[in-house]
Amino acid sequence: MTDTDRLPEIPAETLSAAQAAAAEAFRAERGVPVFGPFVPLLRSPELMLCASRMGLYLRYGSALPLRISEFVILIVARLWSQQVEWQIHHPIALKAGVAPETAQALAEGRRPDTMSAEEALAYAFSTELQHNRAVSDATYAAVVAQFGEQGAIDLTGINGYYALLAMTMNVARTALPEDGPPPLPPLVR
């Protein structure tokens, strides 16, 4: 296997009518051209638009504080070793209030010992869900007590959505921008 981007940007002149319409709708909704995980997703225009709209809700409209959402995105990016997802969300997470030491522990594949109580709940929920494919009663109850039932569902959605994006970019081998920070170190399993 090589590191060659399997599904790079599609030249504008070769877009199908559906792809061109989806790219324009994406630009209208987000104010930017198709980027990152949406580049490979554009091969399925309707899926790309549905994914984009779900992402907008999960990032900006969920019941969770932005700091927790971004923290969970870093967890998912690390668990899937998704370099682009990490590179996009790491600075956003830090700006939202995730401590640099906490993010660094995640990058190294360690459970952070600098987490806030809310972050520890989100970490337990996310890692149980991603590793066990389920969440214990105790963790679920603690999350509902802290974030409500909508928060528990939104936390599930963030895990699933960013896993979808990570899987998509891992399959596509989406390339990192050359001017970005160094990639995540390999995750020892």
UniProtKB/TrEMBL annotation:
InterPro entries: AhpD-like. It comes from the Bacteria. This is Carboxymuconolactone decarboxylase family protein. It comes from Methylobacterium brachiatum.
